[in-house]
Design brief:
By secondary structure, the protein is an all-alpha fold. The chain has 15 helices and no strands. It is found in: Cell membrane.
């Protein structure tokens, strides 16, 4: 009897050790990611058309001295760094959330039409109503993102008794996104003034942004983060299939509805400020999943930290690659993100949900 129990005890012990080791790895990795985020934020304050020393940056942040270098830091580099710290997690988390909801590792916020809805609303406001302020862009983008989400939900069958499936949501989002993108292009091409105003926004940039731009949407981004973290455990159950999740007491329709609201707030708010920056929501969850495994709470937490690290690094590269001019961060993310994503997609462990 003792000899029969012995193998079972060893299996249980090995599983416990594996779980403990994985938790320790995730915790240490998260702490390292936080330190890395702090380091790249400081580099963002130091590097630009005019490089500044560590001492100058430190003095600008923690002393009352006033100089031209301090003005550069406080009025230009600090706001764009803090905005990256806000929109980076929003893009990354929204990507992780839509991948979890649709069980599609190649999904991102654009796949359900959120980015296209935001761009359509901004183009309509600029071309028809002559909106020219950042606050106007912000609210238009949010309304457009919400409009796209609602339409996708209705088209995919959400108005009926049954909640729409991930495939239905994906197909409806792709179709609506294509239609809105076409209309947006037509609006901007017919209005030269709208085209020139939209050009800088559509490529995705953190240049010439102020903290006042962030205050409009920061509460919505925070709500989106809290909603995402709240439903993360339930998404673990949904990953095994809806029937299994329902048997475990998960209200799949409610979780999916909350998820769509969170995606709208996160992707819509971030797009409103910085424009439709691509690859973050698609690439970051892949990188994170490769390290932490399929646990959605950990994927979400890591996405909140890793996404701004990548965005800030891309912004730094954009400042110096053709200095003294700048390359918008959206273009840099395209150049950097595409090859990295191809490498990750070829790894089965990174692509599996």
């Amino acid at each position: 009897m003792v000899s029969a129990k012995q193998p079972k005890d060893e299996v249980v012990q090995k599983k416990t050790q594996t779980i403990t080791s994985l938790r320790l790895q995730r915790s240490i990795g998260f702490i390292v990611a936080l330190f890395l985020l702090g380091a790249v934020m400081f580099l963002s304050l130091m590097i630009g058309a005019k490089p500044l020393s560590f001492e100058v940056v430190w003095g600008a942040l923690f002393s009352n001295a006033d100089s031209y270098d301090h003005t550069i830091i406080l009025d230009s580099r600090l706001p764009r760094t803090l905005i990256a710290l806000a929109v980076g997690p929003a893009f990354g988390l929204s990507g992780a959330l839509i991948q979890a909801l649709t069980r599609n590792p190649l999904a991102d916020p654009g796949i359900i039409g959120v980015s296209a809805g935001a761009a359509f609303a901004v183009a309509l406001g600029v071309g028809v109503f002559s909106v020219s302020t950042i606050s106007g862009y912000t609210w238009l983008a949010l309304v457009g993102a919400l409009f796209a989400t609602i339409i996708v939900y209705i088209i995919s069958g959400g108005a009926g008794r049954k909640s729409p499936t991930p495939v239905q949501i994906t197909l409806a989002g792709v179709a609506l996104g294509a239609a809105l993108s076409g209309i947006t292009t037509a609006l901007t091409m017919m209005n030269s003034e709208a085209f020139s105003r939209m050009l800088n926004w559509t490529v995705g940039t953190l240049e010439r942004k102020s903290l006042e731009d962030l205050w409009f949407v920061l509460p919505l981004l925070i709500i989106g983060v809290l909603l995402s973290l709240a439903i993360a455990p339930a998404l673990n159950a949904i990953a095994f299939g809806e029937d299994r999740a329902i048997s475990l007491g998960v209200n799949v329709g409610l979780i999916r509805g909350i998820g769509l609201i969170a995606i709208t707030l996160l992707a819509g708010g971030a797009t409103a400020i910085a424009g439709p920056i691509g690859f973050i929501g698609l690439m970051v969850p892949h990188c994170v999943r490769w390290f932490v495994g399929p646990s959605q709470p950990w994927i979400f937490l890591y996405s909140l930290v890793v996404a701004p690290v990548l965005l800030i690094l891309a912004d730094i590269i954009g400042r110096v690659v053709i200095s003294p001019s700048e390359v918008p961060v959206g273009i840099i993310m395209g150049f950097v993100g595409a090859p990295i994503l191809l490498i990750l997609v070829r790894r089965r462990t990174a692509s599996r949900l």
